[in-house]
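anyone seen this seq b4? input:
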Amino acid sequence: MAELEYINQGEFTQKIKLQEGIITKDSKSSSVRTFITKYDAYAKVTETNTPEAISNEALRGKNLISVITYSAPVTNRWRIIWAENTYDVMTVTPIYRTPFIKIEAVKL
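predicted toks r here
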């Protein structure tokens, strides 16, 4: 049985854009992937910065966000625009018995 999660819609204070990837053909018949905004929504966004690897004496970080928002048909082929940054969707999980989803995404 899934664990119930408490959702407070008052915490949905961040504006996000959910963009779907569309594959089209250019003038040379090459596949080109473009993104169009399908949904504008308010969400609760939690940012996490994790160390990923040490490369050339520098620590590279991985910027992740966790987003709780209203349900939408989002897949891992979509992107999120938040705070003028672009994030690739990694996972989408419906929240049990609610009209909300939880999205995990990584900054490009």
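The chain has a mean pLDDT of 87. Strands lie at 14-25, 31-55, 58-70, 78-82, 85-94, 100-107. kinda curious what u guys think
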